[in-house]
Amino acid sequence: MKERVIGIDAGGTMTKAALFDLAGVERACARRPNQMLFPKPGHTERDPDRMWRMACEAVREVLEVSGTDPADVAAVSVAGYGSGLYVIDGAGDPVRPGIVSTDGRTAEMLASWKASGLYDAAGAKVQQRLFAGHSAALIPWLDRNEPELFGRSAQVAFCKDFLRGRLTGDYSTDPSDGGIAGLIDVERAAWSEEFFEMTGIRHWLSRMPEIRPSDEIVGGVTAAAAALTGLRAGTPVVRGAVDVSAAAMASGVVDPDHLSVVAGTFSINSTLHATPRLSILPFIQSPYPLGGFIATEGAATSASNLEWFIRNVLDGEAARAEREGKSIYAVCNELIEGSLGKSNDILFFPFLFGGPGGAPAGLLGLTASHTLGDVLRAIFEGIVYAHKQDIDRLLTGPDAARPSVLRLAGGASRSPLWAQMFADALGLPVELPAGSELGAQGVAILAATAIGAHSDLRGAVAAMTRTARRFEPRPERQADHARKYARYTATADALSAAWREDDRLVA
């Protein structure tokens, strides 16, 4: 049997390709940046053709740097960000730019839905709360504001499905993407006709893709795609999954005992359930490829805030890290370690990319005696507390999970100090999965299962994932974090009330 599989993951900031063996060990990885387009305030788009070119380059690089014969690649699969929207014609070409899930153009429409009661009624049909970048909000908005789009289109596609369609010609989707799009009855894994009817987009049902299993072979790499990627024509391609589910699988999340946390561009916090959560509708939820359902709370309040600080404030430290052959996370850890032995009441609110009720980001409690290490510590802690707010919501209600361990992925997992903060603040052991590209690894697991390398998907997860390190919560630190978290939440609420979107100060 061929011993290599490739996973492609098109995320919010990067498109990546990674090569794995059938034990889940990453053998090579290549990354390409995604270019964001901002045609109007609040609009966040992407050139689908450019994203495809970046994916092709990444796959070709992985084959070249690893010295892998394309004939030895057993299968390929694809992950991508959830929601947003791609609309294609009959040839599979985009009829407008792709929309990224951070898009905010539908905010005014959703506000009117809330006022009329449609927001709650529609959300109940798809078992989740609606947000501005939701496919469920974007299609109604486009139907009203770009009415010619329907006639020019043949099908709606989601991020991973657009890329897989370019590989094979198959533009179907899987239940995980359909769920996070907010367009299916999650329990039935079928398009919600009631949702389409009540939101005035019933005619768009004719443009929705077929929903099929995540771990199914959809076809082979076409000759045209082979020429661009370096893959062998005919290589099996597996449908794939949305990145939230793919990363959870690669983290070894297989039952309700596991809390999946991705601290990256977004705060993504997920638990597994035997049935959809209905007592308190989550931010998003969808069928999980291993069976059951995955419920998620999240916001743009995670490690992207640290990346902004590094890029705009720590350019000198980043240069030092490069000179010394260190990661910037190692340098941050060194600076923070000098702050840990003393009291630090600085609060950081990680709302650079959007906060509750329009609250802005900020540092509170600075004095002249504070150091850069103190500020970095506050940033690390503030991001942990933002995750805790999401997790507290996720774990509330009679049908909430009761996890006993947290599996941490994303940028925060690169810092042992940060992982320990998560353990101390949340009171749960934190385990770091081995590997760096978990979205790509998750769909590589799907690919290995589809070709028969493992007997079933659960067995593939067991065989292809492992824990690299574990951090136990320290009781002596939990009380300090509880006190500081209480101040954080009270102050965040006050900020939210003081900085309403329609009440900005103008100098």
UniProtKB/TrEMBL annotation:
Keywords: Kinase, Transferase. It holds the Pfam family FGGY_N. It comes from the Bacteria. Residues 5-249 form the Carbohydrate kinase FGGY N-terminal domain. Residues 260-450 form the Carbohydrate kinase FGGY C-terminal domain. GO terms for biological process: carbohydrate metabolic process. One of its GO terms (molecular function) is kinase activity. PROSITE patterns: FGGY_KINASES_2. Belongs to the FGGY kinase family. This is L-xylulokinase. It comes from Oharaeibacter diazotrophicus.
